[in-house]
Amino acid sequence: xxxxxxxxxxxxxxxxxxxxxxxxxxxxxxxxxxxxxxxxxxxxxxxxxxxxxxxxxxxxxxxxxxxxxxxxxxxxxxxxxxxxxxxxxxxxxxxxxxxxxxxxxxxxxxxxxxxxxxxxxxxxxxxxxxxxxxxxxxxxxxxxxxxxxxxxxxxxxxxxxxxxxxxxxxxxxxxxxxxxxxxxxxxxxxxxxxxxxxxxxxxxxxxxxxxxxxxxxxxxxxxxxxxxxxxxxxxxxxxxxxxxxxxxxxxxxxxxxxxxxxxxxxxxxxxxxxxxxxxxxxxxxxxxxxxxxxxxxxxxxxxxxxxxxxxxxxxxxxxxxxxxxxxxxxxxxxxxxxxxxxxxxxxxxxxxxxxxxxxxxxxxxxxxxxxxxxxxxxxxxxxxxxxxxxxxxxxxxxxxxxxxxxxxxxxxxxxxxxxxxxxxxxxxxxxxxxxxxxxxxxxxxxxxxxxxxxxxxxxxxxxxxxxxxxxxxxxxxxxxxxxxxxxxxxxxxxxxxxxxxxxxxxxxxxxxxxxxxxxxxxxxxxxxxxxxxxxxxxxxxxxxxxxxxxxxxxxxxxxxxxxxxxxxxxxxxxxxxxxxxxxxxxxxxxxxxxxxxxxxxxxxxxxxxxxxxxxxxxxxxxxxxxxxxxxxxxxxxxxxxxxxxxxxxxxxxxxxxxxxxxxxxxxxxxxxxxxxxxxxxxxxxxxxxxxxxxxxxxxxxxxxxxxxxxxxxxxxxxxxxxxxxxxxxxxxxxxxxxxxxxxxxxxxxxxxxxxxxxxxxxxxxxxxxxxxxxxxxxxxxxxxxxxxxxxxxxxxxxxxxxxxxxxxxxxxxxxxxxxxxxxxxxxxxxxxxxxxxxxxxxxxxxxxxxxxxxxxxxxxxxxxxxxxxxxxxxxxxxxxxxxxxxxxxxxxxxxxxxxxxxxxxxxxxxxxxxxxxxxxxxxxxxxxxxxxxxxxxxxxxxxxxxxxxxxxxxxxxxxxxxxxxxxxxxxxxxxxxxxxxxxxxxxxxxxxxxxxxxxxxxxxxxxxxxxxxxxxxxxxxxxxxxxxxxxxxxxxxxxxxxxxxxxxxxxxxxxxxxx
Amino acid sequence: xxxxxxxxxxxxxxxxxxxxxxxxxxxxxxxxxxxxxxxxxxxxxxxxxxxxxxxxxxxxxxxxxxxxxxxxxxxxxxxxxxxxxxxxxxxxxxxxxxxxxxxxxxxxxxxxxxxxxxxxxxxxxxxxxxxxx
Lengths: 1059, 133
Hints:
The complex is a heterodimer.
Chain A: H1 5-70, H2 77-100, H3 108-125, H4 131-154, H5 160-192, H6 198-211, H7 222-233, H8 235-253, H9 264-345, H10 357-414, H11 420-450, E1 459-461, H12 463-472, H13 475-480, E2 484-489, E3 497-499, H14 501-518, E4 524-532, E5 539-548, H15 555-558, H16 570-576, H17 581-592, E6 598-602, E7 606-617, E8 633-637, H18 645-657, E9 660-664, H19 667-675, E10 681-685, H20 691-698, E11 703-708, H21 713-719, E12 725-728, H22 733-745, E13 761-763, E14 766-770, H23 774-786, E15 790-794, H24 797-806, E16 811-815, H25 823-837, E17 844-848, H26 855-861, E18 866-869, H27 874-885, E19 889-891, H28 893-896, H29 906-915, H30 923-926, E20 944-948, H31 952-964, E21 968-972, H32 975-981, E22 986-992, H33 1000-1010, E23 1015-1020, H34 1028-1033, E24 1036-1039, H35 1044-1055
Parallel strand pairs in A: 2-4, 8-9, 8-10, 10-11, 11-12, 14-15, 14-16, 16-17, 17-18, 20-21, 20-22, 22-23, 23-24
Antiparallel strand pairs in A: 1-3, 3-7, 4-5, 5-7, 6-7, 13-19
Helix pairs in contact in A: 1-2, 1-4, 1-5, 1-9, 3-4, 4-5, 5-6, 5-9, 7-9, 8-9, 10-11, 11-17, 12-14, 14-17, 19-20, 24-25
Chain B: H1 2-11, H2 20-29, H3 33-47, H4 50-62, H5 70-83, H6 86-98, H7 104-116, H8 121-128
Helix pairs in contact in B: 2-3, 3-4, 4-5, 4-6, 5-6, 6-7, 6-8, 7-8
């Protein structure tokens, strides 16, 4: 059976640890055993020492006893008594030791003989026991038993060295004992002084052999050996051993007659000295043994502790190893499960088993396959996303073109004479299409952001001007909703900065749009733009804040508020409308500009959106008006009942400019101030004052400035106030400066140039518009003509170039995609021409429906001077015109005087609010007659439309359509019939290019001959190409589509004089 | 082995044990009793050799190296007996027989004890003085 990877892993990880654990356990056991052994041995040593001492003392007693017995109790009685006491003392120690150490059991023989000691002594004292009985049969047996005890307990030391030393110790002990016996026995013989019996002689010789046999050669410790040698072999010892040998010899020489030449006392002393040498040697050994044993014990203890530690470590390691291996196994198992799931999800029937190399290889292959699949899917997703973005961009473009028509013509339609209901319908169409346009723009913006096609511009702009204009846009809407709109733009922002004003304005507009949308009547919106501390000295940080008292956002919804398609509540969308994309776009824009759009909100109390951006600040170019109006005193009407944020802002503005506000509460106070000539002007918020008060205050001789909401215009007009100025809410820097200037200069009627007063601006200039689409042509023409320009049209790039060559213009608007010659090509031609002829350049503005990233750069690189998107935005056109035709600009103030405010559109009111003057009416310019077109036919009464289509059915449908539009229609089935039907009543001829046997040239000749007033319009398929020749033969070439508006426009174009 | 040991002991050159007693013994064994007596006296005085007293008693008893002096012999021999010298008993017994008032009973007791302790002299002395043991 094959061992699985998991088992191998376990084995590899656990085996060494288990081995380590085994060794550690063995060492621990061994060292512990050794330690215990060592300790036991130490105890045994102590015991041996006691036993040895006892043996020594007993031997002395025995020797003395032998003399005592030999002398029949007459000699050394006292010494014996003392010795017995010494022995008793030693016996006591011995017994005590035994009771203290119950684990040590003395041999029964020893205890028994010791028990006999006193009895034997009594017998000795009474001389009832003979020498042999006492000496050999009692004392010697007892001492031998004691020595055996020592021998037994010390036989096995904790190590070899100690064991050897113990052996030496025993050897000395035995020699000592034998010497003792020799001493006692021979003392007895020498004292008796008779011949030794054979038995006695044998005994003596036996003991001599033992008494001189001591071995220590096997001691390993050289030092100890040397010390023993020193004890045994020093001069004194040598002498003693020599003397002892001589004494023995002397005795042996006299054994025959029994006249021993050695005195027993001498013998006794001599032997005693020898014994003391042996005792000394013994002591040295014992001491060494004790030391060694203690050392060994300590060593063993260290080893035991170390191996204990090792054991614990290996146990811990084993546990860790076990846990880790289990974790790894578990991980592998989990991985297996996941891979199994993956395999199942990819519909691959495979059994994942990571335990075998094949299984692992399979798993790797699976992973590889999944990675590849993911990559493919990602690529697919990216492609899809790109396609989606492109589709969105294209779609919105495609939608915008017709929508442009709807918006444009609705605007035109609105200004025609409509009946009551019609007006309402048209305004609904207008609102709806505007909304639709906004939604489409938002979607386009978002898709641009999402496909990273948004570019942040870095142009120089005047922050106060730009931000004020953005805020003004919502002034009217706020006023209509009776919402207090207050605006504070830091007057310190008077230097131009570099950034993308369009995007910032868009954010502000979005935020304000929301604020207005979600704030109820009587609420307030405060917009604050403040200069804050920047990170670098030459930069300028601006914090933007839009605060409302609207419905607020609950905390849980805050997190998602900036996500696309996630307005706080879907019910909110239903109630208030909108796509909810505004915030998403704003947040992304803020992010792109290096800021972060954030909000704080309380449900039901309102919301504050804020963000901070940093800009590059340009050196001072504008005059700083700080503290320039210190002499100005302005009476400021305040009301304790009402307090608008605007009041605070006004105070702040005044503080900055150095003007002083004198608050007053009643008209009487103002009159008093006026009579005392304390102030030159007064500032009154119409919201605070009643009509009566206003009237009273208006009568003062002061420059009276009234702040009103744009909706209150009628009220103020009705009061017929003697007013210096009407200031529309919100009050801003420009309005304050204007007020202050008026107050200081006394020049009342100073004409100020409005900031964005596009409705009053006109340009004395001639423009050429190259555009293939007739609808667009008409719209652009109308827009430009509204602005006072004279407009010439060109249908394609070539025509434009030719017109440029033959005529002189101030500006050219150039569509990019046109038939025959496109805008870019045409521009190249014009530029070449201008260069060749060395004539001044006419600015060329690109018109394009494409609003994609990089377009602007591309067109500018191609030699175009500016770029604008279709549908045309008035403001944009005006700013472009301002840029290129600034010198030809004039204001249309005179016309403004007659306009009726009620006819104004909301936007216009806003614009008017900016200026504080009455706006111009659109009607005035809308009904201008179109300038004559070059290709136009002579006037006639022709009213019939001739149609020739490629099939009779198509012809019928087309005719029906024209009929519905209210025209007289005649259908021809073939070119021949068409030619027959041509007469002076024919105004327009529609010819399908695909009609069988159609020859354009002869047809055109026919028309010229039979119906010179008629226009020839060629209808083509979008796919077919129209060559230049054909185009020249016809008055107009249109795409073969049934589009009522288009057809009507075209027909109108050629029939306009018929009404 | 024991015999070999004994042989070694015997082979040790007889340098003569350096003590008054040993010297006295040597003089005694050579028959130089006067010298022996002097040395034994020295041994008693200097070494406290108990057996020297035995030999002094013996010299006084036998009148060797000095005049026979039974009381002196008795005094020295008595001391030797007290010490445990078995031979001294025999000679003290002889002294008891040789004194002015021979004490046969005392002598017999001493001779008996001496013989019991292994001193052959007692049998010889008993035979010499016809004392039945």
